[in-house]
Amino acid sequence: MSEIQTSQNTKEKSGSKFWAWLLAALLLALAAFFVWDKINSNKKYKNLETEHQQTAEEFLKYKSEHESMEANYSDLQKRYDALNSQIGGTEDQIKLLQRQVADQDSALKALRALKSDVAKALDKFSSDELKIQEKDGKLYLLLMDKLLFKSGSADIESRGQTAIRKIAKELAKNPDFGILVEGHTDNQPIKNSQYKDNWDLSTARANTVVRFLSDNGLPQKRLTAAGRGEYSPVASNATEAGRAQNRRTEIILTPNFIDTKKVAK
Q1: Is a pLDDT exceeding 90 seen at residue 66?
Q2: Are 177 and 114 in contact (CB under 8 A)?
């Protein structure tokens, strides 16, 4: 074999080795890149999986918060509706109370005015004959038996008739007052056969005063009579002075209030 051929063979072998090495290097590089890409893809997958899990957890958290907020909103709406209803009821109650206060104020003014007028009309009578008292929103005219009746009698004495006429005249000017007449006695047993007991006597006296008021211009529908006997004393029955206070006829005047149930309408 000539030197030229030997040299060419040598070059061919060297070229083949170079390409073989280059191919091996490329394959190795490709393998390394594949491994690196696989590792990198796994990391990205794990990261994505972690992010997905976190997103799912956050979604569940926000969903729970949203449901809680909806429940709270529903509860607040119910409370709001309840408060609105209460406010409406409270406003009606306030109107009712305001009307009641106004009615009571008007009634009190009317009561005080009537008290003043009656006191002027009866200024000629002494305190041991009659008293005028204001109590519990009512006006009490206490007429003692000394003024009205003899012992054991239900006939009104002349001076008592004068007093009742004056009272009737003032009450006729004030139609917005109900009139209750109560007869009262002491605890001493009745000593005549005309009346069964003190209760009977007190009832007869109350009826006599009511009829006298009616005869002097007051409508019967405004008048009520009641006998209380000895069962509502204002003083002790142990002394004559106390028994004298208990023997009395009370004219109780009550203002007729407006029907407050209609206020809210």
Answers
A1: no
A2: yes
- Bridge-partner residues for 182, per DSSP? 226, 250
Q: In what order do the strands lie in the sheet with 138-144?
A: 130-135, 138-144, 248-255, 177-184, 223-229
249 by DSSP, 3-state: which?
strand
Residue 180 has pLDDT above 80, yes or no: yes
pLDDT, one tens digit per residue, over 133-151 is 999 999 999 999 999 999 9
Whether residue 35 has pLDDT greater than 60: yes
DSSP annotation string for 163-228: HHHHHHHHHHT-TTEEEEEEEE--SSPP-SSSSSSHHHHHHHHHHHHHHHHHHTT--GGGEEEEEE
Q: Is the pLDDT of residue 258 over 60?
A: no
- 40 Cα distance to chain centroid: 75
CATH number of 122-260: 3.30.1330.60
HEC sequence for 24-84: HHHHHHHHHHHHHHHHHHHHHHHHHHHHHHHHHHHHHHHHHHHHHHHHHHHHHHHHHHHHH
Strand partners, 249: 143, 183
Structure pTM? 0.64
Tell me the domain boundaries of the chain: 1-108, 122-260
Structural contact between residues 183 and 202, judged by C-beta atoms closer than 8 angstroms: yes
CA dihedral (159, 161, 167, 172) positive or negative: negative
255 contact partners, CB below 8 Å, separation of at least 6: 107, 110, 111, 137, 138, 176, 177, 178
Look up tokens 């997905």; give the residue: 52
The tally of CA atoms less than 13 A away on the side-chain side of residue 227 is 16
SS3 for 17? helix
